[in-house]
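Researcher: I'm comparing several assemblies side by side, and this is the next one on my list. It has 823 residues spread over two chains. Same procedure as the others: predict the full complex and return the structure.
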Amino acid sequence: MKQFYGLLTVLFISLNGLLAQTANDAFMMKKGEICIAVPYQYSSWDHYWEGTLYRDNPNLGTVSSHMVAPMFALGLHSRLNLIAGLPWMKTKASAGTLRGESGFQDLSLWLKGKVINYEINPKHRLEVMASVGLILPIGSYYADYLPLSLGLGCKAFGSRLMANWFSEFGLFASANVGYDVRSNVKGDRTNYYTDQGYETNEYKMPNLLTGGLTLGYFKNTTRVELQYNMMNTQGGVDIRRNDAPFLTSNMDQNQIGAMIQQRMPFHKNLGIILMAAHTLSGRNVGKSNSFGIGLLYQFKLFNKTKSETAK
Amino acid sequence: MKTRIVLLIGIFTILAFIACDKELDINKNSSAYTYANIDEKAGQWKPVFLTNVSDITVSTPAQTNSAEYLASLASLKSVSSSITADQKTAIEFWGANSIASWNQIARTLAAKYNLPPAANADGTYPVPNAAEPGKYPYFPFANPPYASRAFAYLGAAQFDALIVAWKYKYDFKRPAPYQVDNTLIPALPKQALPSYPSEDAVIAEVSLGILRVMFPNDTTYLKEKAAELKNTRLWAGMNTQDDIDAGSAIGKQVAAKFINDRAKKDNMGKAISTIAVTDSLATLAELKYGWRWRSLESPVRPGMLPKFGDVKPWCIPDVATVRPGPPPAPGTPEFIADVNEIKDFTANPTSETRRIANFWADGPSTSTPPGHWNAIASDLILKYQMNPIRSARTMAYMNMAIQDAGISCWDTKYYYNGLRPSNAISDFKTLIGVPNFPGYISGHSTFSAAGAEVLAYIFPNEAASVNQFAQDASNSRIYGGIHFRVDCKVGLETGKKVAEYAINIAKADGSE
């Protein structure tokens, strides 16, 4: 349920979809269902890739973020969900003089639809889903302040496509691919040099390709997922030797993660979420590790109609 | 339901396209213009460095009715009558004012080389080597003092070379090709200036001669740009080849004089130094005043250019004359007031203080504070449609004042070893990076007051605006948390005082 787009910021990055229901996971809610979740995540790194050079930086020490990311999802229809999220973050560097930041980050709004629902046989089912979304930096954070800014400050139009396989035993697998078209960002500099000199206060943001594979188990009140996620900006520039990261950096990342979502036996509307993620490799991003815990509450706002009760 | 989904996807797609116009407008060429004035008497102005204009020589041009000239005119007509799209782009880049175009190139190079070297594995720092500019750490590290010097040599040499050019223009009074043959339609506005020697060829060669020494790793690129500028004068039908050759000869001779007789002897080579020098200066200050600046970087980096105060100034008699008194000592009421003020600004930034802090940050990978003022000055020379020699005079005096400001400021910095807020206040956090040299007095304040003072003298109608820029630039250091108020206030005062020396020389150079 939470769009982790936000954390793409900052060298910190955390990829889409490690918690609950998201724009690119394999699940949808039924008509009239509402889910509210409040995950908390801690993310940190003490090494990063400056271009392709893997290094530490004693003038930053460990860069960390705390994030509380309230999200909301609504089943408009059994085949169409609305998902919204607005994270609040706080960043910090353990060394050096730069002040950490805190505040609201980017509002994300997604529509997620089930395009194909195909029963291979009574035991196996295939689904194809698609999401489109908007990411809007409504928090008044200062974007041109990497690696401590809360976000990248750009608007984005996101799209995701998911192919899912489910078995009656509860095993499932899902593959997703996505593309975000990002707007340019305006800052307060009058000039800057990255791959060439720019005499403008506008930064050309590369678009973003994302992808992921999930292997999971979902039955009754338990959902467990193992994930591989990647992101790759389409273009962008390497951080120059000993320069600071910049909004237009070429940020690539490969990450693995795990997520457990457990509904409470005493009150099935209530669930707890645990997650962890580890960065395997990257470029112009931090080698971050993330841990998260959250609560979710899911309930029916209105009754489903007969035609929509089928899974 | 289906139609609704289609509708929603349609809306999102439209929004995506709105977000999608991504090309940056980075080549803001100004339209070419007819010069506001051609300054016929500029050949008699006093140069800033050359002692005798007649030392620079050019050959006597052929008469415009000679067979030799007519052949070169015919060749020019042929070249300029069929220009390609690329040639047109080059004409547009250089056409309005090649002083402004070279200044833009210099600013870009300053930004390119404005990155401090990374530490070695053993915690020491490598020093850029001019003999191997392309080997990391690249030469130069174009920090603000280095950049101020590069801009000063560029402006001063361009100005002196154009005084020579103007002298010969009016000695020979050769009309422009389009005046000799009115069937030749140039691609740039006609000017009433005699065309021999070509002012743009002078500017091309003198700029190349200075910048290739300041940024040796980009010599090939600079040569290409100089050749391109000269070619645009042919493509645009503005100058014959011998106009250009004569201008080139002047530019080369003047650049060589500035480099050999001044740049190689101005003490810049000794300005960079080691931890031992930084420490000994700090120890001296500590004995005298009871405080010392310490590098905030890890590993500890030698202070930036501790001997830049010994570099030869352009207009001030010496640094001691303009050096301010010491800053207030820690614990005094003035000091405590400054501490409280900066704590408040950094703990409670507003969007406006933050905008100002970042707009004037001019940190790594930007063209530095002197570069920022060069961008302001370039806009003004274009706005007022200055001719090349007025433009060069503006750049020369502003940049000599700015370098003198830098020299005075760096002298003061290491003389007193004043504390940065981060040295004086425990757990103090800043909104911009803390530069690696002592606080008192603020470099940006000193540079900016000097730049503003000269620009206000040259463009009196802009005085209020440039003085506000200087005040904002100065305040930006307090808002960002890297300078106390006293650093900024005394920096502005010192910059202004330094600039008066440059302005007094300018007022007596015969141009008024």
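Model: For your comparison table: The first strand of chain A starts at residue 33 and ends at 45.
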